[in-house]
Amino acid sequence: KQWYQRRVAITAGIVQKVELDKSYQILEKGSTLSSVCTVTGPSDIQIKWRKGSGDSATDLTSSATAAAYAEESNTIVSTLSIASLTNAESNDNYECYTDFSSGELKATLQLHVAEITGLVDVGVQAESAAVFTCTVSNFKKVPTVKFYKEVDGGEDTALSGEARSGDTFTWTYTIASASDSSQGKYYCKVTYEEEAADAPTTFTSTAVTLTVRSIDATSTTSAIIKTGDGITLSCVLNVGSKAQVTEVKWFKGSTDGTAIFTDAATVFADSKLTTTYKKEKSTDCDSALIPLL
Q1: 192 near 204, Cβ under 8 Å?
Q2: Sign of the C-alpha dihedral, residues 274, 129, 246, 171?
Q3: Max mean pLDDT range (148-152, 250-254, 265-269)
Q4: How does the average pLDDT of the chain come out, rounded?
Q5: How far apart (Å, rounded) are the C-alpha atoms in residues 214 and 143?
Q6: What is the pTM of this model?
Q7: Cα separation, 13 vs 82, whole angstroms
Q8: Is the pLDDT of residue 218 over 60?
Q9: How remote is the C-alpha of 151 from its chain's centroid?
Q10: Residue 117 phi, psi dihedral angles, 5° rounding
Q11: Which of 71, 209, 250, 269 sits most deeply, having the most CB atoms within 10 A of its CB?
Q12: What is the pLDDT of residues 60-84, one digit of tens each?
């Protein structure tokens, strides 16, 4: 009987188990890691955290918080939190562990910090190509990427993209001939499956805007003017966002030569930009003026 009681007392003082809520996490850059470690053992358990292992390991215990010891289950829970994740935290192991006289018990978390880049607002001339690029990094294997166009009041339209190889995984979606119906917001959705993860992980990029620029109307003071008469030519363009317009230039005959006028006093209203070219006296050489955005 005395031997049995002594054996029970020794068993109760040994750390029996160290568990993490997840052994693998893939999180988006800028998000917060939250990893929960549960240790079963005596009430004087000290839970520690580190990044990496061996001599190069970084102690993270100060970044963790521990709950009160639970007598009924003989457990204590510690939560590691790392805010605003960067690439520096990616592709490494994070360990929750506890020391005792004969060694240590630990549980390991594998963390990957994913990043989606490349998508920007696009502005193109009507009937020209519009290209969207979605690049993802810090994945161990190729994820699935799809492009979508937002639909007001309905289900977003899925669009097929083309994969390109490289150090990171890049996909492109091309509209060969953009039109007014092509305008709208586009985004890409990245789905990643990992055997160690409980379920596929999905990331959605920020939506960007496609603007198709077209000349809606042109007008002059008259269809035919006499040499010496004044010239007033105006051109209205659908530009979507004024921030996308860098300058408006007017050319004579074609856009191959030097601009004859740069319009800095353009008028912007209702996603349309109006540019005007004026000249007090015309000459025979003033025919065929072409605006260029």
Answers
A1: no
A2: positive
A3: 148-152
A4: 79
A5: 37
A6: 0.62
A7: 31
A8: no
A9: 20
A10: -135, 175
A11: 250
A12: 999 899 888 888 888 999 999 999 9
Alpha carbons 135 and 133: distance in angstroms, whole number: 7
Phi and psi dihedrals of 160, rounded to 5? -85, 140
Place of tokens 């990643």: 192
Q: How far apart are CA 39 and CA 74, in angstroms?
A: 8
146 vs 165: CA distance, rounded Å: 16
Q: How far apart are CA 174 and CA 207, in angstroms?
A: 16
Dihedral sign (CA 176, 177, 180, 181): negative
In angstroms, rounded to a whole number, what is the distance separating the alpha carbons of residues 198 and 220? 67
Q: What is the DSSP string of the chain?
A: -HHHHHHHHHHHTS--EEEES-SEEEEETTS-EEEEEEEES-TT---EEEES-GGG-EE-GGGEEEPPPBTTTTEEEEEEEE-S--GGGSSEEEEEEEEETTEEEEEEEEEEEEEEE----EEEETTS-EEEEEEEES-SS--EEEEEE--TTSPPEEE--EEE-SSSEEEEEEESS--GGG-EEEEEEEEE--TTSSS-EEEEPPPEEEEEE-EEEEEES-SS--TTS-EEEEEEEE-S-GGG---EEEEES-TTS--SEEE---EEETTEEEEEEEESS--GGG--EEEE-
